[in-house]
Design a protein that fits this description.
The chain has 6 helices and 5 strands; from the N terminus they run βββααβαααβα. The chain is α+β, with helices and mostly antiparallel strands. It binds zinc ion. The site of zinc ion has 8 residues, from loops.
Length: 156
């Protein structure tokens, strides 16, 4: 789950956009009206992600971006710092076969339920579930993170 990002500076807090890291609010008052927010941060270490106006428009995210950010989330990678213009960017992180399977199921579902995603990625509209699964396998072959073998679960 994406969480809010704070920076502390001389007792003042700044709230950053969880996507682009732009400062949304500065001078968060620890003792005033922001106390509850601060308590929540201290208690859980996290609150729900906050976005700046530019980023707070999920509609502008392409489906590929949604899929990619999910890939990042599953391996704890920072969506904004993975440079996909770099060759072999997908070799920078690893996931276990279990996580890879979770992702593959999620993405198959995503494609299957969202004809607009099919259209964006494959120029199609009525993909069957098995066609979606196949497409995801191809996607993973090209862009999946490296798969790490986990000896603990291998022999179960
Ligand atoms: Zn932003």
């Amino acid at each position: 789950m994406k969480t809010a990002i704070y920076k502390y500076n001389n007792g003042n807090g700044a709230l950053l956009c969880s996507r682009c890291r732009v400062i949304i609010r500065e001078g968060i008052d620890f003792t005033g009206k922001d106390t509850e927010l601060m308590m929540e941060i201290l208690r859980n270490g996290k609150v729900e992600a906050q976005y700046c106006e530019d980023c707070d428009t999920p509609k502008s995210l392409t489906h590929l971006e949604v899929i990619f950010s999910t890939m990042c989330m599953l391996v704890g990678a920072d969506y904004n710092s993975v440079d996909r213009t770099k060759e072999d960017w997908y070799l920078e992180y690893e996931w276990t076969p279990e996580i890879e399977k979770q992702f593959s199921e999620w993405m198959s579902d995503y494609l299957h339920k969202l004809p607009k995603a099919q259209l964006e990625l494959y120029g199609r509209r009525y993909m069957r579930k098995d066609e979606c699964r196949e497409a995801v396998q191809m996607f993973l072959l090209s862009y999946g993170w490296k798969t790490k073998t986990n000896w603990r679960t291998e022999n179960v």
